[in-house]
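Trying the structure run again after the queue cleared.
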Amino acid sequence: MNIQRLLLGALLALTLPTYAQQAPKQFVLKGHATNFKSDFFEAGLSGMFDFSIKGIPVDGKGNFSVTYPLHEIQDFAFILDDSMFRTFVEPGDTLTLTWDDTRINASMVLKANRPYRQQEIDLMQQLNNSLYAYRDAIQGLYKNDVRDSAAAAVINAQYNKDLKIIAAAPLTRNSKKFFVDKYYQYLEPLKSRASLQKFRLEASPELLANEQLVRYILRPDAYQFPDEYALMHSSEYRGFLDNYIRFEYAMKNGGAYNDDRYKSPGFIPFNPIARNYHNAMAAFDVLSIRDWAVTKILMGAYMHEPFDKVDVVYQQFLKEALVPAYRDSLVAFRTKMLKLKPGAKAPVFTLKDDKGKAVSLSDFKGKLVYVDFWGVYCGPCIADIESSAVKIHERYKEKPVVFLTICIDAKPDKWKETLAKYKLDGVNLFAPDGVRTPVVTTYGIAGIPHYLLIDENGIILDNNAPRYSELLRDNNNMLDQALSKKKPRTN
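Done. Tokens:
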């Protein structure tokens, strides 16, 4: 990953086995697909701040081979049809993947070039199979509105099932990663569905009695202590850390920022970006984790909050950041986002609509364009469309406003079926390469739904526009203000 705090790289080099120091800084994925009708499939590799997805080209005979640069252990996933298979990779890996596309789950085989790595990949496959039970269990908690104590019991039971699968496998040099990943995978639903203050994620006495395992199993309060190993090796930990700072480790005075008191002269307007920044700066005494957390917070804020508000905090952090790699990553990210800030010219794109006609953003000069990046399999996207999209379209049908949707996650047939199901009119476009489609990467879409508002001259008014339901609730929303030539609100 080549992103480390000062001196951390030297310290890690002293602790890693000699083979890892000599291994090539890359891994190879190659293989063969039978009965495969496409010319690519998608695979994703975790980074310190994102999960990048790229297409793997497949030739006419079903063969493929691709080399990835790699600096540390990174989580890796490949997507076949609608199924995702997760594992992790390390420098020196050569993985051989084969499958029959007519029976993917029954035929998929992944082979490694080293025996201990094959053991780890086989274990990951067992945990992938367990993942379905995990998803069913967690979804059942929300669907049935299970009380907190019962939810915590369900989460702990499933956590221990996975720990027993790991415990039954041979210990390897990366065993620690399995235990770290599982702890933070299950800690997230425990945090959101129950409470970390009331309930704990605990391994069973049987597992804790195993002298070989006890040094790997994380203690119930492990999340309260900064963990540099987890930061560098586990995307599950990084995801938890980001959410914990933004949603859990919150100052008490930020909870009622919509209260009228905060509009009076004696109160400072609530700024969630500044709050998260100061929380992270205060929470961590480990330099690498502190600077990573702030960098991640500001990257997310640039994608979802008013640019100028983020910039105030950004300038402050540049004075205090001490890990050059993280600071440089943030500077580069901000440079990219400058092209999308309000007042910038909207990048032009051309995609095909549901009738197969090529449609360009430039076709709508003279009209406001409200852009909705969405997905067929995105729950919040569908909820907003179902509850509010048709009503918003009706409200502005006589106005010079174009509602333009871009679907980024489905196959054409499923996309068209969904358009018909929800009676979604307007201009409906399809991103043929999913998240790899240039319009998605150019606009920096890191999550959906995501909305933009572009004025009649092709200038970005808001790169984080309100969603349909928010527009519907506001009788003087951003569309109304833009139509009346008033400057849209930025708060």
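The two ends are 36 Å apart (CA to CA). Worth checking whether this holds up in the mutant runs.
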